[in-house]
Amino acid sequence: MINRRTVTIAIALLALLLFVSACGSATSQNSISVYNWGEYIDEDILSMFTQKTGIEVVYDYYANNEEMYAKIKSGGVNYDLCIPSDYMIERMIAEDLLETVDTSQIPNYANIDDRFKDLAYDPENKYSVPYVWGTVGILYNTSMVDDPVDSWDILWNDKYANQIFMYDSMRDTVGVSLKRLGFSLNTRDVSELNQARDELIAQSDLVRAIVGDTVRDSMIGGEAALAVVYSGDALYCIEKNRDLGYAVPKEGSNVWFDAMVVPKGAKNIEGALKFIDFLCDPEICLRNVEYIGFSTVNSETLKLLPEEMTSDPTFWPDDEIYNRCEVFYDLGDFVGEYDRVWTEVLASW
Amino acid sequence: MKTRYLSLPYLIWALVFIIIPIGLVVYYSLTVEVDGKLIFSWANYKQALTPSYLLALWRSIWLAFVCTVICFALGYPIAYIMASREYASKGFLLFLFLVPMWMNFLLRTYSWLSILERNGFINSLLRLLSLPEARILYTDKAVVLGMVYNFLPFMILPIHTVMKKMDSSIIEAAQDLGANGRTVFLRVVFPLSIPGVVSGVTMVFMPSVTTFIISKLLGGAQFMLIGNMIERQFTESRNWNLGSAVSVMLMVLILTSIAIFTVVDKDGEGGALF
User: Fold this and answer.
1) Above 50 in pLDDT, residue A238?
2) Whether A64 and B238 lie within 8 Å, measured CB to CB
3) Rounded to an integer, what distance in angstroms lies between the CA atom of residue A304 and that of residue A283?
4) Contacts with B119 from chain A: Cβ below 8 Å
5) Contact yes or no for B221 and A15 at CB 8 A
6) Domains of chain B with bracketed CATH
């Protein structure tokens, strides 16, 4: 009798064991796990890196900063490298979620343009190495828009009722409304926020939809006349549909940086640093930015880029506009107010 | 004795993946973070009861209700026909309804986007016929369409199963006793199929009331459903406490409605809980 019982218990435990071991990660010594935005690297570069160093790259995607943050914060998985945006890096530094990055181990770090070093989100560049930068602006279809596109006001123009896409991102869209009113993107003034909210609610009748990544296919397909997009997405769309144009409005906008960081709990920091160095190599970086379409932070790569690209204001907004653009700061607990305002906007639709 | 040990993995599974997470959700919903510490508070529920959230909740229930009614109106006759004598041997029909389910749900919803959009399939066809273009995408109609499309099989299958199992001698007995077709259906077939209808209704209503991806893709985020509100609290706004409070509210609502349904569903055909 005891025998039979032991067998039953053994089977039960075995089943459990199998299940638990299946949950464990299979990262070996000679690999790094990278967690990045979707469509945000030329994936050939991964195999080139493996060929050169023998280090496998395990690659995983996220759709926005918040998703990445939630996963890192919960601590369930260990990644060796992530590429979040500026305000998210600021928050992760404040919450002690990042390892310091030893730039002396990254020879190609010297290629990074000085104007992109020591920015407010990481004042001494102790935690991050810039990846690319870009702006938020208006993508428009020249066959449907005959007014000059140089101001956020066009998104409030009755003429384009039902032909406007807004972006499904709290900070970006509230930011558009704030900038249009001449306020800071990082305002902590509740009355300014409420004004921005009222403007967005007033705009809701003109807006066809609030969309996420689907905006690219929709704009290429001529679904709407105007859309709020990131500069890299704009470039991608313009390549596919020559009727499209992109402008950073004169009121200024958001300028953003994505940078490579090593989260706490990384298993292969050395490998991660090698990968960062590889991505900062001028030739590799050139290949990468040509693929993803955002502006490079690499001054050596910039020299290699074709003239028509570097003179393109989509890639390089002129200094006057650039100076009116702002970087997002982490708002700490005040983000709750943004959330309230944004929820009210969405609920009113 | 044996079975008790064999159920051990399941019990651990239930504890780790069902009981503990629900406990955590309730715990989060009743606390707020102050200086890195969680303290007890009703504040999340207060915020969850503000008009913005109640509106989204109401909208979700309404759209899920419409979706369930449409699924029932479409699904019941289909299930009936497929279980009827002429078609019962033709498994192929049922197979046709199952095939789309093998494809990824997201992909199928995404393809509706290109069917419905302004320059999409339907509008190109309408334009070809010189008809005015239809504005379906980014309206509540598109959301309901997406829901019905995705959840219809969940209505058909349980009803179909019940119909197939129905004892044909009972129907014959009714006919022998002089009942006409209509009476047989209303007084015999339909009452016997109620358990299937109840599980069908629960299995359609539950996912439609909590969906967030269909409303996001096809509603263009204008039709904020309660699922979207919860998702946003866990990702963009990272207020897990508020997100948990809204989730608990939704859970209570769903459990109550299932409890009501289950009173009718005595045989427990799938959706049953109590």
Assistant:
1) yes
2) no
3) 8
4) 221-223
5) no
6) 50-264 (1.10.3720.10)
Interface predicted TM-score (ipTM) over 0.90: no
Q: Which two tokens stand for residue B204?
A: 């359609």
A160 contacts: CB under 8 Å, gap ≥ 6: A144, A145, A154, A206, A225, A226
Q: Do A347 and B5 touch (CB under 8 A)?
A: no
- Domain A11-17+22-133+257-310: which topology? D-Maltodextrin-Binding Protein; domain 2 (3.40.190)
In chain A, what are the domain boundaries? 11-17+22-133+257-310, 134-255+317-348
Contact status of B213 with chain A (Cβ, < 8 Å): no
Chain B residues within an 8 Å CB radius of A66 = 235-238
Chain B residues with CB under 8 Å of A20 CB are none
Between chain A and chain B, the number of residue pairs with CB atoms below 8 A apart is 97
Task: List chain B residues with CB under 8 Å of A4.
Answer: 2
SS (H, E, C) chain A: CHHHHHHHHHHHHHHHHHHHHHHCCCCCCCEEEEEEECCCCCCHHHHHHHHHHCCEEEEEEECCHHHHHHHHHHCCCCCCEECCEHHHHHHHHHCCCECCCCHHHCHHHHHECHHHCCCCCCCCCCCEEEEEEEEEEEEEECCCCCCCCCCHHHHHCHHHCCCEEEECCHHHHHHHHHHHCCCCCCCCCHHHHHHHHHHHHHHCCCEEEEECCCHHHHHHCCCCCEEEEEHHHHHHHHHHCCCEEEECCCCCCEEEEEEEECECCCCCHHHHHHHHHHHHCHHHHHHHHHHHCCEECEHHHHHHCCHHHHCCCCCCCCHHHHHHCECCCCCHHHHHHHHHHHHHHHHHC
Other C-beta atoms within 10 Å of A95: how many?
Answer: 14
Interface of B with A in 216-235 (CB under 8 A): 216-217, 219-224, 228-229, 232-235
Q: Which of A206, A232, A233, A202 is nearest to A218 (CA)?
A: A233
Q: For chain B (length 274 residues), average pLDDT per consecutive 10?
A: 80 93 94 83 91 90 95 94 78 83 89 87 89 86 94 94 89 90 90 91 92 89 85 84 94 85 59 45
For residue A137 the two structure tokens come to: 């602006």
* A144 contact B CB<8A: no
Question: Which candidate in A5, A8, A18, A338 is best for mutational testing of the B interface (most B CBs within 10 A)?
Answer: A8
More confident residue, B224 or A131: A131
Alpha-carbon distances, residue A47 vs A25, A50, A55 (angstroms): 21, 5, 9
The CA distance from A97 to B216, in Å, is 31
Fold category of A134-255+317-348 in CATH: D-Maltodextrin-Binding Protein; domain 2 (3.40.190)
